[in-house]
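Notebook entry, structure prediction.
Reason for the run: the old model in the group folder had no record of what sequence produced it. Starting over properly, with the input documented here first.
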Amino acid sequence: MKCNVSKGLLMPLSLLFSICTNAQEARTQKPEEANCVIRINADGGKAKGPSRVTQDKVYNVGFNRRGHFRQVPNIKPSAKVFIELGYPAAKAGEKVVVSVLDGGMLDNGKRVKVLVVSTQRKCPFGFQVSDDLGSYRLLVRKGNDVKVVQLWVGPEPPVTKN
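New structure, fully documented this time:
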């Protein structure tokens, strides 16, 4: 973030310095500890009724220093995904906002949902990918902390070297 002073706006230098410093600190804060459990229906959510027998795939994924949870691959098109975020240091009642970045739909039928941290310090929600193959990202914001849940529909993408 650059801090610029426009000609029409006079601001005391100390206030300008304070604003720039606070913005810089917000970017360099250590990410809040969190965990993510992703459960995927093995049949892509297509089987119905009480006789339905499936073996769900469960992933416990960690995040990197940029706040991106490890990508979960090999999801079938139209699959229903259950995601449970855990915040060990959170307080019950805190708000977490989830936004869909690349397609698919949250369990409320929308692309944005406000979750409330439970007394168990967890935020569960559902997500359904579309029929399109590729990357699906969910932006998760709790206060100033931002994380990204990453899913991949279709065969695992090839690893690219930079």
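Summary: Helices lie at 13-28.
The old model has been moved to the deprecated folder.
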